[in-house]
Structures are given as structure tokens and as C-alpha cells.
Amino acid sequence: QVQLEESGGGLVQAGGSLRLSCAASERTFTNCFVGWFRQAPGKAREFVAGIRWNGGSVNYGDSIKGRFTISRHNRRDTVYLQMNNLKPEDAAVYYCAARFGAYIDDDSRYDYWGRGTQVTVSS
User: Is residue 112's pLDDT more than 90?
Assistant: First the structure.
């Protein structure tokens, strides 16, 4: 069982930055693929970025490439999502999720989820 807790959301102006954190408890992220998803009102949940804990390979969704960076801190069992040059269309609830296995952008294939953190971007 992996419990996840997100933090770092908030209100930011367009062009600004935020860093989201996803911390694991109960067990570590070892052998996990950890993804960030987002969901805006009335829209489907979208894959944003993910990182393979063992090895550190990363994957990004097309809409955020070049603006967001995912990273990990091994000792803290924490995954970060650095979001730069935020746009109003980035506003959503951001969720951290984990699965044992390889990268996949299908949210139904993730077993563990955090409660989400709200990101609001003003224009």
C-alpha cells in the first residue's frame, strides 16, 4: 500500500511558477512509476508527467512539454513537478498517482492516488 499526499498548489498569475510535491508514506516509491495527472472542470483527467522511480526515466504530456519538469528526491520519497510559464489552461486539480510497473498514461492503470491539489492561474 502506497499512500500519497500532494502539496504546493495555489493561485499564480499567468507566466508564473509553482512546484508541486508528492510524498509517499506507508512504503517507498521503489519499483513504482509515479505520475502527475490533472483534471479541469468538465474535462477528462489528463496525464501531465511521470517518472520511473528506479532509474529516473521521465515522460511528459504533449501540452506541457518544455514548461514542466518532473524530478524525485530519493531519500525523501518525494516526487516534484516544477511548473513554469503557467497558462490559464493549466488550471486544474493536480493528482499524484503511482503504479508498480512501467510508464503508461492511462489513469485507470494506476493503483494509488492522492487527494489532489488545486492550481489556479489568473490571466
Answer: yes
Q: Is beta strand 3-7 parallel, antiparallel or unpaired with respect to 18-25?
A: antiparallel
Question: Distance between CA 38 and CA 41 in Å, rounded?
Answer: 10
Burial of 53 (0-12, 13-18, 19+ CB in 10 A): buried
> CA–CA separation, 57 vs 60, rounded Å?
11
Residue that has been written with the C-alpha cell 504530456 in this structure: 61
Best CA proximity match to 97, nearest among 82, 112, 108: 112
Half-sphere exposure of 58 (CA within 13 A, CB side): 16
- Taking 90 as the threshold, does the pLDDT of residue 25 lie above it? no
Mean pLDDT over each residue of the chain, to the nearest integer: 96
CA distance 108 to 44: 12
